[in-house]
Amino acid sequence: MKKDVLREASNNIGFPENRTQRVSFTNQKFKETFGSPSEFVTSAPGRVNLIGEHTDYNEGYVFPVAIDKHVNIAARKRPDRRVRLHALDVNDFYEFCLDTLPSIQQDAPAWSHYLIGVASLLQAAGKKVSGIDAVITGDVPIGAGLSSSAALSVSTALTFLTASSVSGTSDSAPQLEIDNKELARLCQQVEHEFVGVKCGIMDQTISLLGQENQALFLDCRSLEHEHIPLNLATHSIAICNTKVKRELAASEYNKRRAECEKGIAILQQWLPGIRSLRDITLTDFKKYEEELPTLTQKRCRYVIEENTRVLDAVAVLKTRHLQTAEETDESLIHFGRLMNASHNGLRDDYEVSCRELDVLTDIARNITGVIGSRMTGAGFGGCTVNIVHEDVLETFQTLVAAEYYKHTGIEPEIYLCNVSGGAQVFFF
Ligand code: GLA
User: Of 106, 132, 234, 428, which has the fewest Cβ atoms less than 10 A away?
Assistant: First the structure.
């Protein structure tokens, strides 16, 4: 089977394959819900992180790509302050007023918390926010560790900002008076204040800044970043979904963050200049690690090692185009080893993997042509990311599906990943 046929087969959500068609599809659904066309559609991608997990809230480094799965919102500005929403994929409706924002303790459905949160924080930041009618749909699998929630927040923020700057008299795209850094931080704050997850800044940033066929090397302290061409040559990125929901993710996630903060507070007694785990070298850490409780020690060690792995991985990919064919093979193999080591650290020291994720990575690593396999995202379920030689993509799909089913009784989903561009607004 050819690669594009596999890609089509892996789109089991039923949405049109291409982004422009999906935008028209969302507009069409808007028409069906509200009786006339929308003014614009915002579209924000999910992400898969190649390496650098649980480093973002430690002010460290990450290396994600935006994927060709999006949350789309078709919207039209209203003359009043009402927000009327149709969440197509769960066939749910919700309505609120911007002047009396409902608190999330009320009966507001979970998906609406993101929209209420974005509207609330935009208003608190002094931005103009208008009422809208909107239809929300998408194909980022929910709760699968591919950042469906960041895609929803980013798409929502662009929707409110765009609606507020649409004048109705001009064909040109309105200028949004907010930069991407500010927008990413605002969407991150929605998770903190309205969802209860003390997440980092990676997901929102890549959803905004993703570029086709490029990974984003992001410094999560300064938000300085560099787009690195993904010279994977004859290899592809395959994402395998355990289909295990990340039930523990929110509470355990916040606990991991607290452990890292505790580690820093203790280590500051000997290393007063440090602000986060990103400031400590492995050599310094080894001098003082015995001062930490065992659990804190494991958590901190993982983060410090992971930051080093990201820097190594980026260095490897950056020089590939300068290398001979033999050297590029070697460097990709090195990249794969770093991914495997990352997973092992997440499993053994950070303890955010789960049996299903480990089963998937073990299966993948035993297939010739797979150079690296690791869990991606917060963990406790969700997805693995794999770098697979194109010649074995079909074998990979067949073997992973069969073996995973044999071990767990679950049929996994496998997506072949096109590295996509970041969030956009489409006008009609
Ligand atoms: C979730 C969070 C991110 C990041 C990852 C783990 O996706 O939203 O901020 O911490 O987990 O790397």
Answer: 106
